[in-house]
Amino acid sequence: MVKKTSMKDIAQDVGVSIALVSYVLNNQKENRISKEVAIKIREAARRLNYQPNQIAKSLKTNKTYTLGLIVADISNPFSSSLARIIENEADKFNYTVLFGSSDENPQRLQKLIDTLLNRQVDGLIIAAPEGSEAQLTALQQRIPFVLIDRYFPNLSTNYVALDNYKSIYTGVQHLVDSGYRRIGLISFATDLFHVSERKRGYRAALKDNQITISKAWINELGQATYTGEMAKSIQELLSGKQPVNAILFASNALALHGLKQLNALGVSVPDDVAVLSFDEAEAYDLFHTPVTCIRQPLADMGQMATRLLIDIIQKNNRTTQVNLDAELIIRASTRPVQTLATAD
Amino acid sequence: MVKKTSMKDIAQDVGVSIALVSYVLNNQKENRISKEVAIKIREAARRLNYQPNQIAKSLKTNKTYTLGLIVADISNPFSSSLARIIENEADKFNYTVLFGSSDENPQRLQKLIDTLLNRQVDGLIIAAPEGSEAQLTALQQRIPFVLIDRYFPNLSTNYVALDNYKSIYTGVQHLVDSGYRRIGLISFATDLFHVSERKRGYRAALKDNQITISKAWINELGQATYTGEMAKSIQELLSGKQPVNAILFASNALALHGLKQLNALGVSVPDDVAVLSFDEAEAYDLFHTPVTCIRQPLADMGQMATRLLIDIIQKNNRTTQVNLDAELIIRASTRPVQTLATAD
DNA sequence: ATAAATTATTTAATCGTTTAAACAGCTGTA
DNA sequence: TACAGCTGTTTAAACGATTAAATAATTTAT
User: Which residues form the HTH lacI-type domain (chains A, B) (predicted)?
Assistant: First the structure.
């Protein structure tokens, strides 16, 4: 390996002090430095292929121009799409991104936070796992951070998230408007606020349409253990006393598994049952019927979170909380019921 | 924000020199340091919530314990799965991962390399874009790196990749063995070695089975511009003078678009045409027929690349080149032809 | 011609660590 | 009693930059 060029090398090459090199290469004190020397220094820097040592710079300035991104699992498309957007946005402001996956585990989150803080990141963007309130509270006096996707209503932190209540409400209203009144929900068993908001939106929309929810319609599966549970849930929804004619999946992972099960059971969409999914996925394209979905404004979310964080780092101001609206993409899986018009 | 505790703070608190604090917290000179002082120092470190400043450490030791990962696009499932595996593996050795997306663009690659080098990463893992040979050659004397997924046969670099020739050969042989002899290939128009190896494997397997390839069977699409081209390609393959009865897709992105088109055209798989895909994707699960595919050993690839890189960083030895074998996952999309047995 | 003002450059401290070398206080031995 | 050899600890330089303050060199004003 070839040794890297430092300012010292340039200073020696040109025959000036290190300070002068620093001033020239950082375009400081421009009117005080003789043109000829400045040119010589720049020429030497180019010739010796000088690359500033960001580590040394950071030690002195206490800024690393690095952001930490903590997602649940970088291999999940939701996380990796977000990562890509954040990477791009950060790059515009000359920031680099360090990432880590928390696996929805608060201990692992704490470990990542410590690692990233040791590396002196300037700020963090976090998709917080369930039960991480204590960590986040402690973090507030250590470093600027912005929560993304999920937040805790009783914690006064910066966040950029979706208005989950409204999004689901709109989706359910669309189902009702399309003639579906027996609507099942398949969601996660979790206390995460954004998930419970989805349930709340579902309940409210049905209530506002004078539809009484049967208990059997709400299915909450344990994280990770889907496959078996999903099959059971779907069969129960379709065969109970009050079989549903529409199913709302509360996330893309759930929808993916759900659609797979519908395929396996030979259920026809939307003739046997309509399907509405939270989140979009390229995978849905391969399903026999295009799937209506609630599309999150991922690009906005990532960009806003990144800009907000950089803003806070640079100006150190206020707490900002953003709730974005989702977009309902209507496709054939929620085709209006033909047989009879809605009672409405 | 609360000021971070430094070794100086601990030293003052306990009333010893900074050096002693360093020795104790790094478990050095253990037999030379009095137990009582060591205990006091550790206690103070805990009490003041000391976290080492990795930046200062790095400046002194010239090691950042950071790896740079450059993929084509972190939002692509192939890249993000790899990223997750590399993150996990690196973590085992106390390394952190900085990532960037090159967008298959050598200029952008160069920019990322410079940024990552400024940040003094200890090594790089790179999925190299087409036309980046010059950059990589120059990089060889700057920093240790390992190529992943793709490599250049005329460049003597470390790499961990797939034996693409063999993988495709095996896949085609399976098609032939299942009774398909008119096999189309849909691939990318690119000079990347790993892609051309796939074509070579396809050709060789057909030749070895005494099958003459019709020119029309090989379709190479421009990157990114699929959708239109894909529809055209598939229609031509299915309707030419020598219509194919099997299609081999050279990547998961191609397969995804291809399957979508097959759906749109109402083509039945495998009755009208068999389908074999390179790479696996969760999305395939939603296709009406389970898809036979060539599964890359992603976990092995990521782990080996990471370990190899760390090994090189720490011991600075030899050039290592690894070609891994793929696994053929046989599913219904290549069900053996029923009507007549193979001539063989 | 000399002081004052301006211009160009250097000195030196600093960021938070690491680590070789120096030093101080003991103990044991010749 | 002197000094060699331990043990425990400190000193100080270094990593590669930044930057306030000092200094040197030149020009302008008087």
Answer: 5-61
Architecture of domain B7-52: Orthogonal Bundle (1.10)
Q: Which of these, A260, A199, A207, lies nearest to A234 by C-alpha position? A: A260
Q: Is the C-beta of residue A39 closer than 7 Å to nucleic acid chain D?
A: no
Residue to test with chain B: of A110, A285, A289, most B Cβ within 10 A: A285
Domain segments of chain B as ranges: 7-52, 64-162+298-324, 164-296+328-334
Phi and psi at residue B218, in whole multiples of 5°?
-100, 115
Owner of token pair 């998930």: A195
- A343 CA: distance to closest CA in chain B (Å): 34
In terms of pLDDT, which residue wins out, B225 or A86? A86
Sorting pLDDT into bands at 50, 70 and 90, what band is B339? low
Name the residue of chain A whose CA is nearest to B81's CA: A75
Check whether domain A64-161+298-324 has CATH 3.40.50.980, yes or no: no
pLDDT digits (tens, 9 = 90+) for B107-141: 999 999 999 999 999 999 999 999 999 999 999 99
Calculate how close chain B gets to A285, using CA atoms only, in Å: 6
B243 burial type by CB count under 10 A (0-12 exposed, 13-18 middle, 19+ buried): middle
Whether chain A has a CB inside 8 Å of the CB on B53: the answer is yes
With a CB-CB cutoff of 8 Å, which residues 65-84 of chain B face chain A? Answer: 66, 73-77, 79-81, 83-84
| Reported pTM | 0.92
In CATH terms, A164-296+328-334 corresponds, of 3.10.20.90, 3.40.30.10, 3.40.50.2300, 3.40.630.30, to: 3.40.50.2300
Just give the CATH number of B64-162+298-324: 3.40.50.2300
Q: Return the SS3 of B102.
A: coil
